[in-house]
Amino acid sequence: VLELVETLDHPNGWHRSTAARLLYERQNQTAAESLRRLARRGKTGPGRMVANYSLAALGALKSNDLVLALADESPVVRAHAIRLAEDFLPKLKPGVAGQEAVFDSPLAAGLRRLADDPDAWVRYQLGWTLGGVRIPGEAVAVAKLLQHGTGDRWQQVAALNAATVNHAEIIESLTADGVFAASKIGIEFVTRLETMAAGRLAKVSSSSAGEYHAQVFKPKTKANPDRARAIEQFRPALAKRGSVAAGKAVFELRCAVCHELGDVGRAIGPDLKSTRANGAEKMLVSLIDPNREVAPQYLLFTVHLAKGDGVLVGMIANENASVVELIQPDGSERSVRRADVRSIESTGLSLMPAGLEAGLSTGQMADLLAWLLEGH
Question: What molecular functions are annotated in GO for this chain (predicted)?
Answer without folding.
Answer: electron transfer activity; heme binding; metal ion binding
